[in-house]
Specification:
The complex is a heterodimer. Chain A is α/β, with parallel strands linked by helices. Chain A folds into two domains: 31-166, NADH Oxidase; 236-475, Vaccinia Virus protein VP39 (Rossmann fold, 3-Layer(aba) Sandwich), CATH 3.40.50. Chain A is built from 17 helices and twelve strands. Chain A has helices at residues 3-12, 16-28, 42-53, 72-82, 87-91, 112-130, 144-150, 180-183, 207-220, 240-253, 270-278, 293-306, 348-357, 376-383, 403-412, 427-441, 444-455; strands spanning 64-69, 94-101, 134-138, 157-166, 260-264, 285-290, 313-316, 332-338, 358-369, 417-425, 459-460, 468-475. In chain A, helix 4 runs antiparallel to helix 7, helix 9 (207-220) packs parallel to helix 12 and helix 10 crosses helix 11. Chain A is globular. Chain B is α+β, with helices and mostly antiparallel strands. Chain B has helices at residues 9-26, 54-69, 72-87, 111-128, 137-153, 174-191, 194-211, 234-237, 240-251, 254-270, 294-306, 312-324, 350-353, 357-368; strands at 27-28, 31-32, 36-37, 42-43, 154-155, 160-161, 292-293, 335-336, 383-389, 392-398, 402-407, 411-416, 424-425. In chain B, strands 9-10-11-12-13 form a five-stranded antiparallel sheet. Chain B has a two-stranded antiparallel sheet with strand order 1-2. The longest helix of chain B has 18 residues, at 9-26. Chain B is globular and about 60 Å long. Chain B starts with 8 loop residues before the first helix and ends with a strand. Classes of the chains: A alpha/beta, B alpha+beta. Chains A and B meet through helix 4, helix 5, helix 10, helix 11 and helix 17 of A and helix 5 and strand 13 of B.
Chain lengths: 476, 427
């Protein structure tokens, strides 16, 4: 035991257990997203709110108000107004709406009202855990004023979100946390000056940072494992884009009997999962490669729990500071890479490494986002660097490519383009508008025909390829 | 309703024999391959074994044929099918490649519950004739019911079943829920767990009543979704008929009988006089009558038959129309009228002629009800038809080994049967 430990445990804290117990409580608490139906006694809710009111408040104003919503219809109404589409909003037996009168503190540069509310919310969450309950805070609600109105709250009280409370029906895996030495310094900021890591500009990211970010966010916002939903989100595997990729890979495998297949930067393993289900028994070897052991652990655990037929080998980047796929030269016959170049300012090292492991005559299917497609949310995000509530906030650095730029990079890496497609071309938007217009004026026959044509136009290799949402290349 | 008066047994036996001949070219004990042309889209680039509702008509058909003929081959097929399904099930109860036109994807709705309802009926039949269940079959159904339906899809607030774990929390699909009700009734009976499952069955059945249209031109129909303004697919709505019949039989609640009556009225009215069934009935626009799906028509007739609401005169017309759609290969066309009258009427759209196992099984299930003696499998002939592909003239060819779709300029689709991927696909 160090001197510091001795000091902390014996002298500074007379009741040593309370410190440990508090830390244990903090470590044990994770957001609960699955709740049992059993109701929560009002006394427990009162105790939670009592805890919240014991936390510091700016100038001791205590301008907060908490409304515990338990009545089913009202709960449903509030859930709907939050427009968050999260099942736990409906499942949780109690929703605590948190309000604060911020009107008196509008000019406070440190936002003390908001800080006060934040502290009270953390007290609610910890108190829930201490009483054996599960809870989750939902801040991304769309119509906070509507919630206030529905609950009859006066206009000067601002809604700061909802805490869903109930008896836990799951034990979610613990998300990673940044180590203390990364976030604590004494007396001065003596760490390298790094920009906020959620920046979308790849030149601000090192390989280590990208790896770290992917490792963390996967466990935070991963897909469900064994029915334990970490975050309720649409399954991207169902998208036409994913179906194109899965089936196209099958067509590419067609000529090779029992090929060796690699998915580059597999992340949550969606592509590999699709391949295992679609082509089971037909692949000699299937590899998923990504940057960190955490991702490997995630994929392994996910596949084990699904009880998938077939096996997949997970590979982790072999070097900490450069891209290195741990496979011998020319080992892979079919390779896929789904919108991953976007994470790198210079994707050439990744492309060259992919070229190295691709066998002579082997084939690669590469998908990249197209800069020429009007992804409005992306342009908006480029202007507003703080996009934490924007769409796809969790993707990390994102770079858009022009078709010519990608093709130059591919040639430099030693690939030959054998086919190029555009997925979700921009004219589908025009079709959509046309269909809506036809429906409005009652030309349903025309609308049906346009809809039929649009349904067959998701993939294009014509003029509109350059104006598609995603560019797809088949390479040798 | 006795189907035997509808067409002669010889006709039915020949049709089923030819269809069996075609099915034999599309797969076997592990499952059935093939492209899919569905109500909502097509899947041509992946032609692997689908563990979706394509098994439904086959299992029901084999059960019927075994009951009639006592031919052991049907029992062997049922055993093999249950084993194949068991090996394709994931730990969460879903099945690999169970999403029909969206394959390869698991968790297909309403394809999985429809499949499981048929599996439950098959197990019930095996129990009835004292044939031992294949190893793991009971556990497979249990996994689906407990892990998938109850653990993942049960919506505690709405008291019914969602289609997805993700998002759209307030949305459910009545046709899917109807097939779930069927599965749960069968499972409850099989496992003697009616009491425990009662809240789920009751909730789901009530959710069907809650979204049934009460008046207007679509009175009695079950919409595709519980959301306001949802469209109605008459053939999918027909899936509610057996569910309502079972609910009435089990609970004695007259609401279900009344709901079944009005739904049967709607479905019967959706069957066209010349054959086929309307594809979609909308709230604020005319009913869409093209394309007419052949398999969907057969499926609707089966639903009416299982609910004991089949009208003899209508059935005669429909059977005549259905049998006209059988091709030289023994398969049935998927649809009539995909071109919607735009192209040359002598050249159908390519989607009309692509034969699909997941539709052929529905016809098989219906026609099997007409067969009384062992059938002889008839190997199919070659099919060669002029069609249109996106405005271009093309030729569709099928034999026992392959399907191709070629125009002068383009090789649209080239598939060697019983392989997962076509060697060429531009569709």
């Amino acid at each position: 035991m160090t001197t510091q430990d001795t000091y902390i445990s014996k002298d500074a804290c007379p009741d040593s257990c309370s410190g440990d117990a508090f830390m244990a409580l903090l470590e044990k608490r994770h957001s609960t997203r699955m709740f049992k139906e059993a109701p929560v006694p009002q006394e427990l809710i009162s105790r939670m709110v009592k805890a919240a009111t014991l936390l510091p408040t700016s100038c001791n104003r205590q301008l907060w108000h908490f409304i515990a919503v338990t009545e089913p219809d009202l709960k449903k109404k509030v859930s709907k107004l939050s427009d968050a589409q999260q099942s736990y909003l409906y499942d949780a037996p109690v929703l605590i709406a948190i309000f604060y009168d911020t009107s008196l503190e509008t000019r406070n540069p440190c936002c003390t009202a908001e800080v006060t509310v934040g502290m009270s919310i953390s007290a609610l969450l910890l108190a829930a855990e201490a009483h054996g309950l599960g809870a989750i805070y939902l801040g991304g609600i769309r119509r906070p004023a509507g919630i206030g109105k529905a609950l009859g709250v006066p206009g000067y009280l601002k809604c700061f979100g909802l805490v869903c409370v109930g008896w836990k029906d799951d034990e979610p895996p613990a998300p990673n946390r940044r180590p203390v030495q990364d976030v604590l310094t004494f007396n001065t900021f003596n760490l390298p000056h790094e920009r906020y890591r959620a920046d979308i500009r790849p030149h601000l990211w090192t390989l280590e940072q990208i790896a770290d970010f992917r490792d963390k966010l996967l466990w935070y916002k991963g897909v469900h494992i064994d029915g334990k939903t970490l975050h309720v989100d649409a399954d991207v595997r169902f998208s036409p884009l994913f179906q194109f990729m899965t089936t196209r890979l099958g067509l590419m495998m067609g000529s090779a009997a029992a090929p060796r297949v690699l998915d580059v930067m597999s992340f949550n393993g969606d592509v590999v999962l699709q391949l295992m289900m679609a082509y089971r028994g037909q692949l000699a070897e299937l590899y998923a490669y990504d940057l960190t052991p955490g991702i490997k652990r995630y994929i392994t655990e996910r596949f084990e729990r699904l009880g998938l037929p077939g096996t997949c080998s997970c590979l982790v980047n072999a070097e900490p500071d450069r891209i290195a796929i741990p496979l011998p030269d020319g080992h892979i016959q079919v390779m896929s890479c789904y919108e991953r170049l976007e994470h790198f300012e210079d994707p050439l090292p990744l492309l060259r490494e992919m070229r190295r492991v691709l066998a002579p005559g082997g084939r690669l299917l590469l998908l990249v986002s197209n800069r020429y497609y009007p992804h409005l949310y992306r342009y908006k995000r480029m202007r507003n660097k703080n996009y934490s509530l924007g769409r796809n906030w969790n993707r990390g650095p994102e770079r858009k490519y022009e078709p010519a730029q990608v093709e130059r990079l591919l040639r430099e890496a030693g690939f030959r383009i054998t086919a190029a497609f555009g997925l979700q071309p921009v004219h589908l938007k025009i079709f959509d508008l046309g269909i809506k217009l036809c429906r409005r004026i009652g030309w349903h026959g025309v609308a049906d025909r346009w809809a039929d044509r649009a349904a067959q136009s998701f993939v294009t290799d014509g003029f509109f390829r350059s104006f598609s949402s995603t560019l797809a290349y088949e390479l040798e | 309703m006795n189907l035997n008066n509808m067409i002669t047994n010889d006709t039915a036996e020949t049709a089923v024999g030819r269809l069996e001949g075609w099915l034999a070219t599309m797969g076997g004990s592990d499952g059935y391959y093939g492209p899919v042309v569905g109500l909502r889209g097509v899947s041509m680039a992946w032609c692997g074994i689908g563990h979706d509702w394509r098994w439904e008509g086959l299992l029901d058909g084999w059960t019927t044929l075994h009951r009639r003929t006592q031919d052991a081959v049907y029992l062997e097929r049922m055993d093999a099918a249950l084993n194949a399904l068991n090996s394709a099930q994931l730990a969460n109860g879903t099945f690999c490649n169970s999403y029909f036109e969206n394959n390869p994807f698991e968790g297909g709705m309403p394809y999985e519950p429809a499949l499981m309802a048929a599996v439950v009926r098959t197990l019930q039949y095996m129990q009835e004739i004292a044939h031992p269940w294949p190893a793991g079959a009971a556990e497979m159904v249990e996994r689906f019911v407990e892990q998938r339906l109850i653990k993942e899809l049960w919506n505690k607030v709405l008291k019914t079943f969602n289609n997805w774990m993700q998002s759209d929390f307030e949305r459910y699909s009545p046709p899917a829920v109807a097939t779930i009700v069927e599965t749960l009734y069968g499972y409850a009976k099989l496992t003697d767990s009616s009491e425990r499952l009662a809240p789920y069955i009751e909730g789901a059945a009530n959710s069907l009543l809650a979204c049934q249209f009460r008046d207007g031109p679509r009175a009695g129909a079950l919409p595709l979704s519980n959301q306001e303004g949802s469209d109605v697919s008459p053939c999918m709505a027909a899936r509610g008929l057996p569910a309502f019949a079972l609910a009435h039989q089990q609970t004695g609640d007259d609401r279900f009988a009344a709901a079944g009556n009005s739904l049967a009225h709607f479905v019967s009215n959706s069957l066209l006089l010349d054959g086929g069934i309307s594809v979609m009935a909308f709230a604020h626009r005319p009913t869409r009558t093209t394309p007419l799906f052949v398999g969907a028509t057969a499926d609707t007739l089966r639903s009416l038959q299982r609910a004991g609401r089949l009208d003899a005169a209508v059935l005669r017309t429909q059977l005549t129309w259905l049998l006209r759609q059988q091709t030289a290969s023994g398969a049935f066309d998927t649809a009539v009228g995909f071109d919607d009258g735009r192209g040359s009427r002598t050249q159908p759209d390519w989607r009309d002629v692509i034969p699909v196992c997941g539709w052929a099984d529905k016809v098989y299930g219906l026609l099997a009800g007409l067969v009384e003696k062992p059938i002889s499998i008839v190997s199919g002939g070659q099919v060669c038809r002029n069609v249109r592909v996106r405005g271009e003239e093309a030729v569709f060819m099928e034999d026992n080994d392959s399907m191709t779709l070629r125009s002068k300029k383009t090789e649209w689709f080239v598939w060697r049967k019983q392989t997962v991927c076509p060697s060429a696909c531009r569709l």
